[in-house]
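User: Study the chain.
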Amino acid sequence: SNALAIMDICNQYPDVLFTTVECTSDNFSQLISADHDRYFNFFKPCFNSEDYGTNFGEMIADLSEEGVIDFSNKTVAYIVEDTDAGRSCVTACEAALEEYCGGSTTVAFEVVAQGTTDFYSQINKIKALDPDVVMTYFVPLNSGVAYCKQTYELGTDWTDVGFVYPMKAGFVEQAGEACEGLIWFPQMADFEHDEDCIAFGEKVLEMFPDAGLTAIHLSAYNIMYMVKEALEAAGTTSAQDGLAEAYENVDYTAINGRYVFKEDHTSYSSAEYLPVTCAQVQNQEYYVVWPFEYASAEAVPQN
């Protein structure tokens, strides 16, 4: 919602290049596609809700085929924060399950205020519905920690798939054994097992020893170097005089993928470009488990 508000006035500053880091709502691509001239100077690298949904559906299909997830009833419950990103991600997930799993039944769609830490009523309601999978989408760390601890306390037997909150520094330390087995998106930087990411993380911590290292450090670094390349190519700092066009045409290869903009000013998301990798908490560490070609460990059943 904050980024959309900024986007709404970007045409009043035609010399300025606006570029986000992590914003998910599909509203961005829809608005830009509808009026490219108005939003010529606004860009959103990284993923859309549609990308999250597509990979959620494919992952459920693949891991259920492997016997890691029991999706025999094709039932899903959703608990998401009350934001554009949270709501649009549910729609995307339902569409992807239709495509990759032959459909699904949404048994619950619970929307909570951003920052919520009391999920007892939602968890108890969903326990009675007995879904195969529960998808949660929260940006604040405290919401994700609280949800995991409360499902652990109440004893649930579904497969949990979380979005965003496990990216936050300190999640595993705070959630402890309550998050063991959690499957989550997007693991954009494997600072524990990928040599390039480990080296990058060491450089960050050399400069900022107290930084809570997350994938956002890498995203911000990548995007600033994309801007640098555009500035060098355009030879100007004015968006309307060539910087926006140069940025739109950037083809930047990073350690976590290749950034190339689509016509709607969002990044291509695929194995050849910027993959949406899925991780799992195993023995209190993050391991990429899907797509299989990127996996650092095999996924295991949660319960």
